[in-house]
């Protein structure tokens, strides 16, 4: 048995036996965690006590008895009122069952007492499991309720490697809307790239012609002329950014997040990570640790180019910026989970393990100008991933298994292209207004949009969540997701814009 909790609050889960269920007589399997990812995701596996042997049918058999006193009845009534259901595993195949139901008037409450299991096998492997809940019994105080189960084995033609296909939902993830959104984003990329190429190249060609004409003037005509445009800030545009320590750390962290996203998506496309509990999270943690040199290279080299000398401090800030944000949020939410006695509460030993890997370090910053570009620059990148974020959020916060990682890879490529194009256009407008402070503007504006609008919209209109625990869990981790996505896009935009700025100024003759 794994966990039990309210249907509408997927992350609000508790140990199965936190409800007064009884345990069968067999005790050959003990509580365990297989991976760090399972521990962090709140997996709480405990043996049910059901005696099941391979290919041995079991008729309906009573395996335990619940002595329903007043306190236990109230616990079951509360669970039924809040639509509690539980999850269990047989040979790592997940099964879900409802705890009970109420009558139409909400006066009487009933508990499902009979677990009817049908297990499909192919050769010597389990390939299919189905659970039917029967035996509805009214909850009456000071009575005894018998819990029973049965097992029916049946031969199946499903291959072992395909046994998780039944849990996927092609009609949802491969819906025409999903395909249309990908096509729409792709057309946006073509339009945006064409627009950038046409407008900027034509505009830059006119700028180059005007600047070349100015070079042919004598000094008096040049002094009397009306000089304007991005050439006038050539002496300032390559200045080191303000706060280069934090700026370079953000760029390095963004590059690392991009590398982690790319590698994890590729691995997920090759391997079916959804077939193993916690494997996606474990893979992401391992890849993040393995790609730390990416952070060090891009952040450290940028800091050195900007004349920074405190490279040891930059190394520590770059290394702990994202882990500090994740750990700080996780520890805060963990205190709430501990108060609720939820399975999502990370055990103390796991917290110590994570703490030794990633040291908690808190950094906060805020930059506001120029406000117009910061507010408007993130609209197109956000629009390019808006629909895909809906499918990703649904798989994480609802009961769907995300498996279309090819779509995710395509959307990541589209996001990178759109981000670079938008930042180049915004940078040109900024420089043309003779404002040389382009580095921070291009990095910060994406932080304003990525995921935040979708986060609030999804909470109020798509997911029927409630309660302090689920609300803090949702907004806490979505804030981490949005900020990490913004840092990644900011780093991508800075890389593309930096190449653009160097290119245009190398073609201008400067006295």
UniProtKB/TrEMBL annotation:
GO terms for cellular component: membrane. It is found in: Membrane. It holds the Pfam family EMP70. InterPro entries: EMP70. It comes from the Eukaryota. The keyword Transferase does not apply. Keywords: Membrane, Signal, Transmembrane, Transmembrane helix. GO terms for biological process: protein localization to membrane. Its main location: membrane. The chain crosses the membrane at residues 179-201, 245-270, 282-304, 316-339, 345-363, 370-393, 405-431, 475-495. It is a multi-pass membrane protein. The keyword Protease does not apply. Belongs to the nonaspanin (TM9SF) (TC 9.A.2) family. This is Transmembrane 9 superfamily member.
């Amino acid at each position: 048995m794994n966990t039990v909790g309210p249907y509408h609050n997927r992350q609000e889960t508790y140990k199965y036996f936190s409800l007064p269920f009884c345990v069968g007589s067999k005790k050959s399997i003990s509580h365990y965690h297989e991976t760090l990812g399972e521990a962090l995701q709140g997996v709480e596996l405990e043996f049910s006590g059901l005696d099941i042997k391979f290919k041995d049918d079991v008729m309906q058999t009573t395996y335990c008895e619940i002595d329903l006193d007043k306190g236990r009845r109230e616990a079951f009534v509360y669970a039924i009122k809040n639509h509690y259901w539980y999850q269990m595993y047989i040979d790592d195949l997940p099964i879900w069952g409802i705890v009970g139901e109420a009558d139409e008037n909400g006066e009487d409450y009933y508990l499902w007492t009979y677990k009817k299991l049908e297990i499909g096998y192919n050769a010597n492997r389990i390939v299919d499991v189905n659970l039917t809940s029967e035996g509805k019994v009214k909850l009456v105080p000071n009575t005894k309720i018998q819990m029973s189960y049965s097992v029916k084995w049946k031969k199946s033609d499903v291959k072992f490697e395909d046994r998780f296909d039944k849990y996927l939902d092609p009609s949802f993830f491969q819906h025409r809307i999903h395909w249309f959104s990908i096509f729409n984003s792709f057309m946006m990329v073509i339009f945006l790239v064409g627009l950038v190429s046409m407008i900027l190249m034509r505009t830059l060609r006119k700028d180059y012609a005007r600047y070349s004409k100015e070079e042919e003037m004598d000094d008096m005509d040049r002094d009397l002329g009306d000089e304007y445009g991005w050439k006038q800030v050539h002496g300032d545009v390559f200045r080191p950014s303000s706060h280069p320590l934090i700026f370079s750390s953000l760029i390095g962290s963004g590059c690392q997040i991009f590398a982690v996203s790319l590698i994890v998506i590729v691995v997920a496309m090759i391997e079916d990570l959804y077939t193993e509990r916690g494997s996606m999270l474990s893979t992401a943690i391992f890849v993040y640790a393995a790609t730390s040199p990416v952070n060090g290279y891009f952040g450290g080299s940028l800091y050195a180019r900007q004349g920074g000398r405190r490279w040891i401090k930059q190394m520590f800030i770059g290394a702990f910026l994202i882990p500090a944000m994740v750990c700080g949020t996780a520890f805060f939410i963990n205190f709430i989970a501990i108060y609720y006695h939820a399975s999502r509460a990370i055990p103390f030993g796991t917290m110590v393990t994570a703490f030794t890997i990633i040291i908690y370090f808190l950094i906060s910053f805020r930059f506001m100008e120029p406000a117009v570009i910061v507010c408007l620059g993130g609209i197109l990148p956000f629009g390019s991933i808006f629909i895909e974020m809906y499918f990703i959020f649904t798989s994480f916060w609802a009961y769907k298994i995300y498996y279309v990682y090819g779509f995710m890879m395509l959307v990541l490529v589209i996001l990178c292209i759109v981000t670079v194009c938008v930042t180049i256009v915004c940078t040109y407008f900024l420089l043309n207004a003779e404002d040389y402070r382009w580095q921070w503007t291009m990095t910060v504006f994406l932080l304003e949009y990525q995921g935040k609008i979708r986060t609030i919209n999804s909470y109020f209109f798509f997911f029927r969540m409630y309660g302090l625990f689920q609300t803090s869990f949702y907004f806490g981790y979505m804030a981490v997701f949005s900020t990490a996505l913004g840092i990644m896009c900011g780093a991508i935009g800075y890389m593309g814009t930096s190449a653009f700025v160097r290119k245009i100024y190398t073609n201008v003759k400067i006295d």
